[in-house]
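Contributing new records

If you add data, match the layout below exactly. Sequence lines come first and carry their own label; structure lines follow with theirs. Keep one chain per record. Anything else will be rejected by the validation script.
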Amino acid sequence: MEPIQITAIAVALALDAFAVAITAGVLLKAISLRQNFRLAWHFGLFQALMPIVGWSAGQYIHDRVQIIAHWIAFGLLLFVAQGMLRSASGSGPQPAELKDPTRGATMVMLSVATSLDALAVGLSLSMLKVSIWIPALIIGLVAGGFTTAGVHLGTKLSRVPRVSCYAELIGGIMLLLIGINILREHGVFATM
């Protein structure tokens, strides 16, 4: 597989992480080096590991995983989004009580949700008999870079008064839209 093809795949896979990172940056308003590292590290790590897992599983689970992976990603994003939307409506935790999206279970759920497509890529590479190590490294590095860029863009967007006031609402809607787009990409709405 050509380096340009691997890079194109890595960029395509990193776009969900980029969008989620923008949301995290908007919510946090200011991000420490530690928070940035945690989010970029986890998003990059999960993006790198998922193709390896998919490649290792190979043909055996290809059909089974491909059928449900998009629903798992949608469910995880929906879970995080509904918490943000409840908080934005005033029925959830108030801003002082909000959890840092770069820590704990929220970060893990976002990492998994944004990297499930990489699992399918690993399965595909396995069927093409392509070695996984270099593609996985490139996918992880690109995802980490896009995450860092997204977080910093989000912190800049949070300085815009309208964005800052509605950060959780915007973030929840963005996560829902990402989840719906994942379903669309996998043809869920084509059968309706």
